[in-house]
Amino acid sequence: MGRASGERRCREYCSSKIVAMVLKVFFPSCCSSAESGILIGRWISEQNSAVILAVVHFPFIPVQVKQYLSEVQRVTKVSVSVLGSWSNSKQEKEESLSEFLEDLGTIFSHEPWIQISKEGDSKFWSCSTLQKHCNNPKEEEIILVYYDQRKVMLSHLHPPLDTATSTDHKADDASKLSAIFDTVAKSKVLFMTDRYDDGPIKLTHWQSDGVEASIIVELMKQASVPACMLLTFLVSLVSGICRSRVLTFWPLSFLWSKLSTCEQLGHRLQHLQVISSNKKAQTQTQLMRKANIFVSLLIDVALGILLMSWLYRKNRIGHLADTLIPMADHVAEELQDLLQWLMGAPAGLKMNRALDQVLGRFFLYHIHLWISYIHLMSPFIEMILWYVGLSACLGLTVALCILSDIIALLTFHIYCFYVYGARLYCLKIYGLSSLWRLFRGKKWNVLRQRVDSCSYDLDQLFIGTLLFTILLFLLPTTALYYLVFTLLRLLVVIVQGLIHLLVDLIDSLPLYSIILRLCRSYRLAAGVKFRVLEQRDGKPLRLLMQINPLSYGSVVQTYRLPTYSCYPKDSWASLCKKLFLGELIYPWKHKGEKQD
Amino acid sequence: MEERRYRSASGAPIALRRRQHSASCRELAVRCPRLQLRSLSAVTSAVWLAAYGLFVLSENSMVLSAAIFITLIGLIVYLHFVKIDQESLLVIGSLGIQVTSSYASGKESTTFIEMGQVKDVVINEAIHMTPFKYWKAAIRSPNSLLFSRLNNPNCLSLSS
What we know:
- Chain B: Pathway: Glycolipid biosynthesis; glycosylphosphatidylinositol-anchor biosynthesis.
- Chain B: Belongs to the PIGH family.
- Chain B: One of its GO terms (biological process) is GPI anchor biosynthetic process.
- Chain B: The chain crosses the membrane at residues 40-57, 63-82.
- The complex is a heterodimer.
- By secondary structure, chain A is of the alpha/beta class.
- Chain A contains 19 helices and 13 strands.
- In chain A, the strands form 2 sheets. In chain A, strands 1, 2, 3, 4, 5, 6, 7, 8, 9, 12 and 13 form an 11-stranded mixed beta sheet that branches.
- In chain A, helix 8 (215-243) crosses helix 10, helix 12 (316-343) runs antiparallel to helix 13 (353-390) and helix 15 (412-439) runs antiparallel to helix 16 (458-508).
- The radius of gyration of chain A is 38 Å and the shape is elongated.
- Residues 1-19, 162-173 and 589-596 of chain A have low confidence and may be disordered.
- Chain B is 27% helix and 34% strand.
- By secondary structure, chain B is of the alpha+beta class.
- Chain B has helices at residues 37-58, 62-82; strands at residues 2-7, 13-22, 25-31, 84-92, 96-103, 108-114, 137-140, 144-147.
- Chain B has a 6-stranded antiparallel beta sheet with strand order 1-2-3-4-5-6.
- In chain B, helix 1 packs antiparallel against helix 2 (62-82).
- Chain B has 2 helices and 8 strands.
- The interface between A and B is medium-sized, with 22 and 20 residues.
């Protein structure tokens, strides 16, 4: 038994040693039909893997190859070297060639010297290594990994590594794959020569079919620079006007901060500044952000112009204005009916008649004021709508924000009712709670922030109890008014919230990234996947490395554009508590504002 | 390449296939039974019968077309996102581990974990709906069990 376990341990030890000795050769699949020559690429010693970038054909002059490699190394900052030899013999194996290839190893000294040979059209290549300075030559296992050079070069591995922040210890942390991706991406210069370029050295690697000179693209490139400059000038002009002193006086600035249209316009102005800045985007993330903003702006404006063309055809604005005023009237009438109902015996409840009448008349007077205000406005509504509708050309989001503002302005009476009701209710609740403490012989200690016991006088207790009784009996009346107006307010808030949700969606959706993922899925890589290819005994294992595209969810998560509004931080429980205590609720807190 | 048959925790038959590609590359695949026509037709007919019952009650032909759409969309969602035909684990020495699950519709979702990022391998055990049965037994020295004739341990079912 002991011997068996010992044997097993020995085998495990051996297998672990074999695993440590596995040599990985990353071979570009476009080079599989290259003529015989030498392999150049990067040797990553800590991973025991070789990334082959190109094949240099015969005939060549070794000095020229070395010169070329040092030049490439200088430009790309990748330690490119000659890794081994590649022989592609169409017919039977040529003895002299193989000897010659072995001799090449002495000219270009590299440890280990990789020899790959392909015979005829066979899929199974033989692969071997030569180690001269090793005293105990061992049989190494070799894995051939094919990769698509173009896709690997163009793709970006996620999550993106920040090259600026990565320090030495992070470089160790960096995964092997990112090293390989990085090597291929950095040696882009190597691949830039197209097949019509003729240099002293003949290389095989991925090649573009020559630069296609499209006149439209070239013209757009030329035109983009002055266009950007003009845009920058306009944006700086507009932002200068916005910051001018006339507009930052107290009543106006307060008004600007309450209108969501102004917020949205400011947000879009920032976007325009980002796009028109002539600084080149350094990292991939910045580039993607710029492109996302650009596409989102473009689509937003296109949708806005579509909306505008729909609105201004067949005098739809006039119809809209004609229906808007009767609707506001209708809402006011409904509110009047509701108040009349509340002033009677709503749902069979017996209310305090005097308080009920007072509150009802107060609100009725308010509605009366509101109706007269709307009637005063009615001749101008169509004109206002006509001019406001023009702003839809700034984008669909701006139009939606204007709609939200119009709703807020037209339901201002509901907001007022809500505030009155809430304040009254809040006052009662606080009074009741403090009197309830008095009732139990306790009081709130402000200095210690806790409830202390306290001995009250007799008349204090008498007055307190009397007030408590009065407040308690008046509470249902106020609570009913509060409840009804809170429900109305919540309805308006939900409608506004839905509009803002739509605006946020358009603002934050990274459309460019999504289109890229849809059409060029290899550009955004989450990692790689391997497929085991058909294999034969005695030949190295062959794997095909494919790019695993990022899922749509993580694309949206990674490239989401930040928006100015954030969702309410209140949980449902705290919202309910606020509603119960009669504190005012605001649906939409902006990021810049401080929360009281 | 060898194949063995097991039972899953819930009792469904599964097949484990092992394949040695090379000394350092090994693939393990667990295959579930394919979707059976019997269960598919049973679910479909149940939904349609329920829809027909509703149609008779409400006399609205929308119910029938809704039932057809629900069945179709449900089937697509089930095949594309829920039903997994095969799960495989590819271990490539010194390169990494790759987990692939292929769905019944042919969709494959693959995750490759590099060797450097693998911290540890844990075999997780779970007991799921296993009936535990108790029976009377006596221990007789030295080390032999004596079972009562009734209620013998053959009815003890353990799922792998």
